[in-house]
Amino acid sequence: ILPRNAKLKFTRVLSEQTGKGVKVNLKGFVCNKDYNDGQDLGCEIIKKDMMTRLAIDKDKTLYSIEITIQEKPLGKLFLKVE
Q: Where does 20-60 show beta strands of DSSP type E?
């Protein structure tokens, strides 16, 4: 759960399969406003920057995080914001 005024940053992915091409994509957040490449690794995430239309629950507080390596799924997490 991400508290209302908190900040979050994905700094690295630890896995036996990590290497080049690792991408962390928080659905509903755009790190690079000029070009959304879906890479949120290393970006500071604040609730006010989240796009509620991409939340996956009716309360608009739950977001999907997809982790890929060379475009292949590595894992999926969920982030709940207050």
A: 22-26, 44-46
